[in-house]
C-alpha cells in the first residue's frame, strides 16, 4: 500500500514505469477488446507455468477450498484462474476511453438491477460490497454507465503518476475514488449525495478495522467498514458480482444483504460481514476459475485457530 499521507514526488522509475505501461496499453488497444483480453489470458497462463509465480499459493488454497477435487483438477482450475486474472487486468487497462455505449454492450445478462433501483429510491446512498471475482473494475464502470454515481474505496497506488491517470479515467466514466484513509470523512458525504459507495471486501489490510468470519470453512480476516457505515447511516447494502460468460461478455449479478439491528452494534456489524462473505463464497463456488486465488486469503487468523483450519 502506498503512503498517501502527503503528496508524493514521482521518481524516474515511476515515470519510466508509466511510459512503458501506456505504450503497452496503446498497443493492446489496437487489438480491440477481445484481442487484448485474449493476450492477457495467454500471458497470465505463462506466469502460472512455466514461471510458477505464486503457483503454490493458488494450488494450496484451491485444494483447501475444494477438497473434493483431484490434483489434476486443482491444476486445471489454477491455470484457468491465472487466465481470468490476466484477462481482467488487461480489460481494466484498456478500459480508459471506452464509451458508455461500449461498456453497456459488454454485458450480456443482468440479474437483480431492481435491487440497485430500490436501494437508490431510499435516498440514503448505497453500500455496495463485492470481491475480487470476475472483473470488479468493469463492474463499477457498468453501474456508472447506467447513471448511478459511484464512489470506489481503494488503496493508494505506489506510482503517483499512474494513480492520477487511473483516477482521471475512472472520473471520465462516472466513478470517483475515495482513498481508504479518507473513507471515514468522505463516505458519509457520498451517502448523503445518494451515491453508491463500493468496497472490495475480501482482502484484509493492516490498519483497517476487521473481523474474522468463515470463508470456505476457515476464519478469514475481513474489513468491517461496509457494515459499520451501513449501520451508522442506515444505508442499504447490496452485493454485486460481475462475471465473465463463455461468450466473453459479462453477467451483472446483484442481491441485497440483510441488515438487522439488535441493539448490539458490534454483533450486528459482524453479522453483516458474515452475510456478504457467505454470498461471495457462493459466487466463488459458482465461478471458481474467476476468483483471485493469488492472494493469501487466510494469512491472518485468530491465535486460537485449530491447526487444520489455518492457512493451507
Structure in words:
- With 312 residues, the protein is α/β, with parallel strands linked by helices.
- It has helices at 12-29, 32-48, 55-65, 71-93, 100-105, 113-121, 136-145, 160-172, 183-192, 225-233, 265-286, and strands at residues 107-111, 126-130, 150-154, 175-179, 196-200, 210-215, 218-223, 237-244, 250-257.
- It has one domain (12-299).
- A 7-stranded mixed beta sheet has the order 1-9-8-2-5-3-4, with helices on both faces.
- The two termini are 25 Å apart.
Report low-confidence residues grouped into runs of 5 or more. Answer: 1-6
What is the radius of gyration?
A: 19 Å
The succession of helices and strands, N to C, reads HHHHHEHEHEHEHEEEHEEH
Q: Tell me the β content.
A: 15-25%
- Secondary structure class reads alpha/beta
The rough form would be described as globular
Mean pLDDT rating: 90
- How many beta strands in the DSSP annotation? 9
- Number of helix segments? 11
Q: What fraction, in percent, of the residue positions are helical?
A: 40-55%
- Strand neighbour order, sheet with most strands: 1-9-8-2-5-3-4
Major sheet description? 7 strands, mixed
Tell me the span between the first and last alpha carbons: 25 Å
Number of domains: 1
Amino acid at each position: 500500500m502506498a503512503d498517501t499521507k502527503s503528496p508524493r514526488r514521482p521518481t524516474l522509475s515511476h515515470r519510466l514505469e508509466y511510459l512503458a505501461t501506456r505504450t503497452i496499453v496503446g498497443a493492446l488497444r489496437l487489438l480491440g477488446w477481445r484481442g487484448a483480453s485474449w493476450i492477457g489470458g495467454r500471458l497470465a497462463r505463462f506466469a502460472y507455468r512455466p514461471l510458477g509465480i505464486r503457483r503454490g499459493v493458488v494450488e494450496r488454497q484451491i485444494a483447501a477450498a475444494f477438497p473434493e477435487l483431484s490434483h489434476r483438477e486443482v491444476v486445471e482450475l489454477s491455470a484457468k484462474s491465472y487466465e481470468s486474472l490476466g484477462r481482467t487486468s488487461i480489460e481494466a487497462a484498456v478500459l480508459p476511453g471506452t464509451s458508455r455505449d461500449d461498456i453497456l454492450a459488454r454485458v450480456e445478462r443482468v440479474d437483480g438491477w431492481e435491487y440497485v433501483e430500490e436501494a437508490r429510491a431510499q435516498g440514503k446512498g448505497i453500500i455496495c460490497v463485492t470481491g475480487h471475482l470476475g472483473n470488479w473494475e468493469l463492474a463499477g464502470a457498468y453501474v456508472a454507465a447506467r447513471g448511478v454515481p459511484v464512489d470506489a474505496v481503494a488503496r493508494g497506488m505506489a506510482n503517483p503518476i499512474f494513480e492520477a491517470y487511473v483516477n482521471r479515467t475512472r472520473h471520465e466514466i462516472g466513478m470517483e475514488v475515495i482513498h481508504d484513509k479518507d473513507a471515514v470523512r468522505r463516505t458519509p458525504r457520498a451517502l448523503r449525495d445518494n451515491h453508491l459507495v463500493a468496497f472490495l471486501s475480501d482482502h484484509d489490510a493492516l490498519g483497517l478495522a476487521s473481523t474474522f468470519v468463515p470463508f470456505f470453512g476457515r476464519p478469514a480476516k475481513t474489513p468491517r467498514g461496509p457494515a459499520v457505515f451501513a449501520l451508522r447511516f442506515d444505508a442499504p447494502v447490496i452485493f454485486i458480482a460481475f462475471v465473465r460468460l463463455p461468450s466473453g461478455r459479462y453477467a451483472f449479478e446483484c442481491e441485497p444483504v440483510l441488515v438487522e439491528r439488535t441493539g448490539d452494534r458490534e454483533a450486528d456489524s459482524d453479522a453483516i460481514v458474515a452475510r456478504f462473505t457467505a454470498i461471495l463464497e457462493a459466487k466463488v463456488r459458482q465461478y471458481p476459475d474467476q476468483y483471485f486465488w493469488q492472494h493469501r486469503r487466510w494469512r491472518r487468523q485468530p491465535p486460537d485457530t485449530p491447526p487444520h483450519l489455518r492457512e493451507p
